[in-house]
């Protein structure tokens, strides 16, 4: 039992009649929990959401995955990690927002103080690296990534293979007949 539920269940236990087997007596073995749950939600003035129990489970599993290893959480809730990832784990908006504010890689020191001389040197180096050598169908062009803070990296280099390469115009992925 998770500690967040304990106070509510203890309150229900205190209100229960002596000898009651369940803290919610109408939730016996033959009850339709979904129908009863919808009635409780509507009595509380709310609208029932789709997939009541699956969405509750997904919310709790997502909360637990933020705190504990996936293997442990899946074991506690009675599923496997692949099932949890496919059906229950959800992306959390606040995690995305946090990630969007934090750099995930090393930022150059004193990025704001990049001198014109460094920028010119970078431009010359880039020009040297991007000169195409007309070496036929095996040509490979690569550009240096920019060092300016806040700039986007260049796309991956395009590899042009000849007909013997068997990869066509799809860059790195091979052509398949059916996808």
Rg, alpha carbons: 29 Å
Shape: elongated
- How far apart are the termini? 46 Å
Q: Which band does the percent of strand residues land in?
A: under 5%
**Main pleated-sheet profile:** none
Low-confidence stretches: 130-143, 162-172
Quick one: how many beta strands?
A: 0
- Helix fraction, binned, reads 40-55%
Mean pLDDT equals 73
Number of helical regions: 7
Succession of helices and strands? HHHHHHH
Q: Decide which structural class fits the backbone.
A: mainly alpha
In short:
By secondary structure, the protein is mostly helical. 42% of the residues lie in helices and 0% in strands.
What does it look like?
- By secondary structure, this protein is mainly alpha-helical.
- Among the domains are: 32-101, no CATH class; 135-145 and 152-179, no CATH class.
- The chain has helices at 6-15, 33-43, 52-65, 70-77, 81-88, 93-101, 116-130.
- Helix 3 (52-65) runs antiparallel to helix 4 (70-77).
- The longest helix is centred in the last third of the chain and has 15 residues, at 116-130.
- The two termini are 46 Å apart.
Offer a few descriptive terms.
mainly alpha, 7 helices, elongated, 179 residues
Give the SSE map.
Elements: H1 6-15, H2 33-43, H3 52-65, H4 70-77, H5 81-88, H6 93-101, H7 116-130
